[in-house]
């Protein structure tokens, strides 16, 4: 059974849904630049308009109400609020927009969970070096304080940074996300480091300046697959799976939840590769300095984005150059029994979520966990009757029930990704994650509920009525 105050939510992010990329004084972000200049996005698409939530927020609110959500997770566009990234210039129109969203949600009895940063750095800050530059942490801290000050009387759940792993790796190592850098084996570690410093500064600011009056909670959202050894009897596979967990979840979760520093496994793997390539010492994975804000303990809950699982075996690397892949020295494969959703990376493995939750409980000292993202993609011909996705949500949520009831994991919320179809980064509009379909070919951008939206809404209302002691719960099957 779910705890009484369990959060039933759905999520979106600013660049993926808002549009209005130049409206009312918004500054450009690295995603505006990346889509307009670098190409590489499916069909040359961009988020200039996307769901146009900047103008159509009421439509989103109707969707939220139709689902019966208790929580809605959205992100703020830093450059909409602070066009040049600094608090020297505040865009009041941006403040008004988010005030309205937050007030409308609360008026409908929906609690906002607000992410400060979901991939869309103000271009002005990129021009100063972006996340590679240590100074970004101070700018992020000022932006965060501005948001706590402006919205924190009403927002009680905060995520500082969404998926530092994805920003670092896809943005600075692989280059398929903004800002599109491919500085293999170096930049991602620096970016991850500055993201942790930025997060920690913001958490400390909240802790010392706002917590007493605002009484909210702050964390960062970490994405991880569940990794397990291809052959559990092979020592190399077991070690590779452990390394993969350390490089994905551990990279950020160890510093914040266990030691204040990176996993030893990660440090030694990087050092080994540096040496093999003829470099001395561990110069790629930075160390936290005395001047840095302490990282340990800077999360009031554990926010997990889970999508899929991998089997891992040793080896599989790769060329004569430094790279994260080389450092990781592990090969990820799919189990043939796992169905694939619309996207090749997204194998459907609901039981992997249960295992990952148990792992987090055991390794990171039994934290309160919010599943801040989880979802299923549709590609190809539109199916409003999306039976596979209905099954996906049912079985995923039943795995969460098992994690709570049988493994004693302290899960406090579940956020489906996403409220509606939106701009799926490098995949543009070719991939649909929504509980609502959005008609991007029509001027109205009309939202239509998928069958999976109805299904999720039924699940929510069953659990809600069970919690309030109504009859009729016992004969349901999830
Ligand atoms: C989330 O990240 C994002 O937070 C969200 O904005 C997005 O819409 C959602 O996923 C759906 O994609 O190296 O090319 O094989 C999810 C974590 C990690 C999933 C990287 C894709 C591998 C892509 N992502 N992963 S690739």
Description:
The chain has 478 residues and is of the alpha/beta class. It has helices spanning 14-17, 30-38, 53-67, 78-81, 92-107, 123-126, 136-151, 164-174, 187-214, 235-258, 264-276, 324-328, 350-363, 387-405, 451-467; strands at 7-11, 71-75, 111-117, 157-162, 217-223, 226-229, 302-305, 309-314, 330-333, 369-373, 378-379, 411-417, 431-432, 436-438, 447-449. It is 42% helix and 15% strand. The protein has an eight-stranded parallel β-barrel, surrounded by five helices. It has a three-stranded mixed beta sheet with strand order 6-8-9. Helix 8 (164-174) runs antiparallel to helix 9 and helix 14 (387-405) packs parallel to helix 15. It starts with 6 loop residues before the first strand and ends in an 11-residue tail after the last helix. Bound molecules: ligand GBH. Residues 13, 16, 162-163, 166, 223, 305, 307, 345, 373, 417, 424, 433 line the site of ligand GBH.
Most strands sheet: 8 strands, parallel, barrel
**How would the global form be characterised?**
globular
Radius of gyration based on Cα positions = 21 Å
Strand content: 5-15%
Number of strand elements: 15
**Hetero groups:** ligand GBH
Q: Could you state the order of secondary-structure elements as H and E? A: EHHHEHHEHHEHHEEHHEEHEHEEHEEEEH
Work out the helix count: 15
Helix vs. strand class: alpha/beta
Which runs of at least 5 residues are low in confidence (pLDDT < 50)?
471-478
Give the proportion of residues in helices: 40-55%
In quaternary terms, these chains amount to single chain
Family: Belongs to the glycosyl hydrolase 1 family.
Active site: 373
Pfam family, one: Glyco_hydro_1
Organism: Xenotaenia resolanae
């Amino acid at each position: 059974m779910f705890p009484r105050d369990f959060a039933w939510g759905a999520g979106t992010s600013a660049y993926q849904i808002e549009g209005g990329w130049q409206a009312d004084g918004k500054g450009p972000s690295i995603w505006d630049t990346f889509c307009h200049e670098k190409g590489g996005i499916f069909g040359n698409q961009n988020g200039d308009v996307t769901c146009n939530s900047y103008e159509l927020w009421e439509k989103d609110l109707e969707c939220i109400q139709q689902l019966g959500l208790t929580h809605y997770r959205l992100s703020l566009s830093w450059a909409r609020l602070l066009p040049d990234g600094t608090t020297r210039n505040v865009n009041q129109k941006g403040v008004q927009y988010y005030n309205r969203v937050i007030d409308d949600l609360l008026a409908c009895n929906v609690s906002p969970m607000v992410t400060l940063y979901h991939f869309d750095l103000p271009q002005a800050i990129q021009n100063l070096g972006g996340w590679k530059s240590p100074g970004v942490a101070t700018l992020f801290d000022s932006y965060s304080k501005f948001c706590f000050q402006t919205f924190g009387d009403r927002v009680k759940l905060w995520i500082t940074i969404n998926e530092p792993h994805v920003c670092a790796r896809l943005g600075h190592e692989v280059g398929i996300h903004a800002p599109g850098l491919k500085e293999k084996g170096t930049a991602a570690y620096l970016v991850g480091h500055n993201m942790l410093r930025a997060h920690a500064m913001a958490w400390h600011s909240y802790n010392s300046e706002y917590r007493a009056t605002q009484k909210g909670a702050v964390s960062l959202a970490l994405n991880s697959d569940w990794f397990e050894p291809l052959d559990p009897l092979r020592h190399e596979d077991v070690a590779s799976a452990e390394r993969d967990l350390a490089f994905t979840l551990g990279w950020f979760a160890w510093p914040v939840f266990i030691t204040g520093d990176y996993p030893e496994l990660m440090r030694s793997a990087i050092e080994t590769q540096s040496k093999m390539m003829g470099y001395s010492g561990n110069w790629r994975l930075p160390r936290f300095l005395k001047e840095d804000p302490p990282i340990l303990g800077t999360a009031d809950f554990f926010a997990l984005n889970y999508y899929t699982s991998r089997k891992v075996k040793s080896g599989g690397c790769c060329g004569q150059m430094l790279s994260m892949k080389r450092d990781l020295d592990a090969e990820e494969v799919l189990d043939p029994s796992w169905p694939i959703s619309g996207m090749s990376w997204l194998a459907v493995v609901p039981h992997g979520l249960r295992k990952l939750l148990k792992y987090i409980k055991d390794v990171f000292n039994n934290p309160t966990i919010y599943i801040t993202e989880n979802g299923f993609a549709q590609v190809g011909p539109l199916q409003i009757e999306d039976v596979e996705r209905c099954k996906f949500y049912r079985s995923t949520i039943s795995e969460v029930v098992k994690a709570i009831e049988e493994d004693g994991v302290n899960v406090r919320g579940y956020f489906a990704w996403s409220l509606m179809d939106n701009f799926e980064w490098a995949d543009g509009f070719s991939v649909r994650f929504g509980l609502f379909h959005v008609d991007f070919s029509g001027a109205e951008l009309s939202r239509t509920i998928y069958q999976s939206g109805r299904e999720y809404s039924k699940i929510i209302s069953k659990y809600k009525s069970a919690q309030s002691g109504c009859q009729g719960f016992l004969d349901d099957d999830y």
